[in-house]
Amino acid sequence: MTFHVIIPARYASSRLPGKPLAMIGDKPMIQWVYEQAQASGAQSVAVATDDQRVYDAVLDFGGVAVMTRDDHESGTDRIHEACQSLGLEESDIVVNVQGDEPFIPPEVISQVAQLMSAPDSVMATLCTPIESEEERTNPNAVKVVFSERGKALYFSRHAIPYDRDQSIDADKLNQHYFRHLGIYAYRRSFLQVFAQLKPSRLESIEKLEQLRVLENGFSIEIGVASEAPLAGVDTADDLETARAYAKKLSS
After folding, report:
1. Structural domains counted in the chain
2. What is the per-residue pLDDT across 171-218, written as a single tens digit (0 to 9) for each?
3. Whole-angstrom Cα distance, residue 117 to residue 1?
4. Which of 3, 65, 198, 231 would staple 113 via disulfide (CB 3.0–4.6 Å)?
């Protein structure tokens, strides 16, 4: 299956300003992400940004970038505008790879695209088993439950499912609890539909835009990632962890 990767990258991150250009080893973070996407077998890779500095940095390392508006409420809206600029076809599969995932495995990028093989699939994502109680109760680790047919049922910052009878053993959390990974595949035509949907009730409560899709009656295909990616870079501490990991890779 052919697919395209678009990487949304904002400069003005509230927790880590200038994050896409933060150096990890001898490369800016956005270059690490771009190169991982290139290794996934994508037909094309582009960065969608609202900042000239990020745009110029991508061109400097030989990448493709498109400028987008600075008032988008979500990365999905930015992806939609970028698709228009890039002239992608209605039937094209587009994978949204977050710009703060410098070590995302290329196989994971390809995997989420393959979930879109059914002609009626409009959106797909991935998850990974939760291994610890700390992660299970962490509201920053988004949880997901899904059906036997691989359809997402609900996403939440709360621990779901609720273990009413305390019947789940601590060493079996990974059989029942799954953390959502922030990678998505869309059919290009569905991005146009999503852009016209208003923020939904549950989305506003949980602050999770994927709930807008479920609340409007659309399905999200979901699979368990073939490899659990390292955590993304959200804070200064995360950045130092990424730098240490990159140094380890190069040694």
Report:
1. 1
2. 899 999 999 998 999 999 999 999 899 999 999 999 999 999 999 999
3. 8
4. 3
Range of the domain at 146: 4-237
d(CA 68, CA 149): 36
Q: Classify residue 134: in a domain, yes or no.
A: yes
The span from the CA of 209 to the CA of 176, in Å, is 23
Which residues are CB-neighbours of 201 under 8 A, at least 6 positions away? 215
Q: Is the residue at 249 inside a domain?
A: no
| Rounded Cα distance, 179 and 65, in Å | 30
pTM: 0.93
Asked whether 194 and 76 are in contact (CB, 8 A), the reply is yes
Q: Are 43 and 86 in contact (CB under 8 A)?
A: no
